[in-house]
Each structure stands twice: as C-alpha cells, then as structure tokens.
Amino acid sequence: MRAGRLGVGVLGAGRVGPVLGAALANAEHAVVGVTAVSDAGRDRAEAMLPGAPVLETPDLVERSELVILAVPDDQLADLVRGLADAGIWQPGQLVVHTSPDHGVGILAPAMAAGAIPLAIHPAMAFTGTSVDLVRLRDAYCAVTAPSPVLPIAQALVVEMGAEPFVVTEADRPAYADAVRAAVSFSTAIVDQSAGTLAGIGVEYPGRVLGALVRTAVDNALAAADGQATL
Prior knowledge:
The chain is an alpha/beta fold. The chain has 9 helices and 7 strands; from the N terminus they run βαβααβαβαβαβαβαα. Strands 2-1-3-4-5-6-7 form a 7-stranded mixed β-sheet, sandwiched between helices. α8 packs antiparallel against α9 (205-228).
C-alpha cells in the first residue's frame, strides 16, 4: 500500500458497505476486512470485496485505519458505545457512518477515545452490486464533520467517485426526511402506475414507464435546481 493509502474495514455487509469499500479499493486503499452475519452478506462481501477476510467486529476495528459503519440506523448508537466501552476505538482512527439521520454526534464515544468522526451518506438507492459503482460516479454524498477534518470527508467522497456537499449537524434530520421522501414517493408512484398497466394487460409495465419516468424526473430535477438559484 503506497503512502497516503488507508487500511479500510467495512463493518456491515448490507447493500451499502461493500460498495463503498469497493469504491475505496478502486482508489488504491486496502480493504483489510468486512463483517458479515448472514449468508447473503457473505456472498455480497465476496462478490464486491474478493479476498477480503470476514472478521469479527473487534478484530476488524483494531486492524483498520478507516472504519466504515454501514449498519442499520437503529443499531448504530449501541455499536459505537459498545466498542468504546470495550476500549476498541483507537486515537487517530477515521470512523465513518453512512446513516442519513445523524451527523457526528452519534460518534461521540469514538471521539472521546481519540477517533476522527465523519458522517458520509451517498444520496442514492443501492442494489449492493457492481452497478452501484457506476451510479456512484453520478451521485452526491452528504458530508458532516468537525471543521478541521471536513476536508478528509470530502476527499474520501471524491476518491469514491462521487461529489460531496456539506450538511450541518443541525440539518441532518431535515436532510434525512428529504431523501427518504424522494425514495418512498417515487417508488410508490411507479408501483401504482405499473400495477395499473399490468391490470390492463401490459406485459412489461416497467419498460413502458421507463422513458416516461426518467424524463419526468429529469425535468422535475432541472426545475428544482432552477428554483434553488432564484
């Protein structure tokens, strides 16, 4: 590993963690390991991070210079606190969580041990496959971090191929509401329309709606950007 590269540990083998690990590996960082508790997670880890060992959480954290916490939101606080209580966090270690809801406050127990807290949320819907690596190049990531280390979070996002934008600690809940609304409404509308088309005998409703939905969304996004500049 050349100078400036990090040993990356991916804690969580859901749809997000292995993709971000693979993106950092493509930027010549070294993935030192991943945690996985299910067969599906192990399969995903092997596909996205071939050769990376599956480790227990304490071993993974101890070996990593950068830890990606890609776990469900309701598990994040207890995980961070439990590792702090066990004395696992290390001074100078980068700790990144991927939750849209939280800034760096939830990482306070790791900060108290000397770790550097970063919150990075890619604003995209993940599949957990290599398709996401391509989509990540067109994605934006919300970053929240203490001012002195904000450039580190921004640089990591750029290395993953995405574009960083800053969301303050106080604004993270509003940001989370916005991205969840976009995903839930778009999914519900497509499901409703596809169901109606299927009901009248259209064989491939998703294909029929594809161009319509994409162009409608593109137009709406362009209008949103126009409003933001007024």
